Amino acid sequence: MLGSLTIIVAHHMYAMPPYPYLATDYGTQLSLFTHHMWIGGFLIVGAAAHATIFMVRDYDPTTRYNDLLDRVLRHRDAIISHLNWVCIFLGFHSFGLYIHNDTMSALGRPQDMFSDTAIQLQPVFAQWIQNTHALAPGTTAPGATTSTSLTWGGGDLVAVGGKVALLPIPLGTADFLQISVFGSLVMALEEGGHAKYPLGIMSS
User: Fold this and answer.
1) What is each CA distance from 142 to 136, 138, 184, in whole angstroms?
2) Which residues span the membrane (predicted)?
């Protein structure tokens, strides 16, 4: 959990920097991102290692009968197969959108492609979150004078020393397509990891 949160912080620190000077200091940005990604990776690997050690050394199915972990282990085949089908479904549908766009582009039919100027697939939930944060100072957070980041929207471009530091990030179809493929990739990696560790230990 902490490792995943650290990786989320790494992403948000460069995607939505809280300070204008941080956004223009590329060395600092890269260092902070790399630092948090490595820390998050070590925390996730450490958590998996400790869970595996627990399963091998301390877990006794005779004394822990019918608790949550025992029920999960008894249903591991069904859980893994369902995760597998979800992974295949997400992967084919996400990748299928790109195949569709490539096909329409090859046929010279840009009006039938998924894009902001043709068939739109807007990330409505992400846009709702952006608008909520952008409008927070006047509504849900009346004591605040500004939003947590200018990237939420509702502000103007901020330049520091002639460099663009912050500007609102409008989300569109490309963002939706990219995060769909990324989500299916994460699902595939998670499903593959659970298929091997630690649930697979009990089958030996």
Assistant:
1) 7, 5, 38
2) 39-57, 78-99
Would you write out the chain's pLDDT as a tens digit for each of its 204 residues? 899 999 989 988 887 777 778 878 888 989 999 999 999 999 999 999 999 999 888 888 888 888 888 888 889 889 888 888 888 888 888 888 889 999 999 999 999 999 999 999 888 888 888 888 777 777 777 777 777 677 777 667 778 888 877 777 888 888 888 887 777 777 666 655 554 444 444 443
Please state whether the predicted TM-score (pTM) of the whole model is above 0.85: no
In the block, tokens 């912050």 appear at 166
- The alpha helices in 58-109, defined as continuous H runs, are 68-74, 76-106
Contact assessment for residue 165 and residue 27, using Cβ atoms and an 8 Å cutoff: no
Question: Sign of the C-alpha dihedral, residues 186, 93, 173, 124?
Answer: negative
* Helix, strand, or coil (residue 114): strand
Sign of CA dihedral 134, 127, 163, 5: positive
Report the alpha-carbon distance of residue 128 to residue 168 in Å, rounded: 14
